[in-house]
Specification:
With about 230 residues, the protein is an alpha/beta fold. The chain has eight helices and ten strands. Bound molecules: adenosine-5'-diphosphate (2 copies).
């Protein structure tokens, strides 16, 4: 069962002298209910691949699917719908709205989509990330680790087809990073969430079920059930 798929995806930025081929015909299937990490050095195309899969960026050639939806070829309007209804995002910089409380931030994707929150699921998610006593706090009143846990809850509460996490531990100390990664892993194990995480940190990637290695815009290696020694 496949949650997202890239088929011979090419991505070219710019033209002429300034042309950069960021992806050279990448094909990959991301299984549903799995935690996949995409690793590779800076400039290897990790963010580009994630953005193409998530409908944040268009492909130059090839096809991308999220669930049954063929993402490549969708217009701007349909891409907006896809991002709202089918995918969740976690960013390095948390990207919480500063004027909203933690609870309002968590519920924002549902209110934008005009969906009613399932209170029981909301409570489950909030308890799993350990934010029960921080729901009325605004982002500036929370530590970095707590803010990222709010962002995780916000992604998970909408039960998206796939959660895309771009360097989610990049701004966290190792303890807060480990908490966030444990939460991501348990949301996969316990709730069947599908997660795709971009990272250049081998320690972070070792939380995943599968690691895909990119170099110069190509998949060069892959590991199942990685240990941190194997990823390094
Ligand atoms: P990574 O996430 O692995 O660091 P990126 O996907 O950000 O790699 O970048 C892959 C390549 O594409 C790099 O050579 C980068 O300079 C280039 N690139 C990324 N985004 C753009 C852009 N908007 N315009 C031009 N080149 C870009
Ligand atoms: P964590 O265990 O999430 O890493 P810390 O140990 O950094 O949290 O912070 C302990 C407490 O201090 C947190 O519960 C939080 O409420 C508060 N706190 C941390 N950073 C900030 C901040 N920048 N502004 C306001 N309060 C903060």
């Amino acid at each position: 069962d496949v949650a997202a798929r890239a088929v011979d995806v090419w991505k070219v930025y710019g033209s002429g002298e300034a042309q950069v081929v960021a992806l050279h015909g990448v094909s990959v299937e991301l299984e549903r209910g799995r935690f996949t990490a995409i690793m590779g050095p800076s400039g290897s195309g990790k963010s580009t691949l994630m953005h193409c899969l998530a409908g944040l960026d268009t492909v130059t050639r090839g096809e991308v699917f999220v669930g049954d939806t063929r993402v490549s070829g969708l217009g701007d309007r349909a891409l907006t719908d896809l991002r709202r209804d089918k995918v969740g995002f976690i960013f390095q910089q948390f990207n919480l709205l500063p004027t909203l409380t933690a609870e309002e931030n968590i519920l924002l994707p549902l209110s934008i989509a005009g969906r009613k929150p399932d209170r029981q699921w909301f409570d489950t998610v909030v308890d799993t990330v350990g934010l029960r006593d921080r729901l009325r706090h605004r982002p500036t009143q929370l530590s970095g680790g707590q803010q990222q846990r709010v962002a995780c809850a916000r992604a998970l509460v909408a039960r998206p087809e796939v959660i895309f996490a771009d360097e989610p531990t990049g701004n966290l100390d190792s303890r807060s990073g480990a908490e966030v990664l444990s939460f991501l892993r348990s949301s996969v194990r316990e709730y069947g969430q599908t997660i795709v995480m971009v990272t250049h940190d081998a320690g972070a990637a070792s939380y995943a079920d599968r690691v895909i290695f990119l170099a110069d815009g190509r998949i060069v290696d892959e590991l199942r059930e990685p240990t941190s020694e194997a990823v390094l």
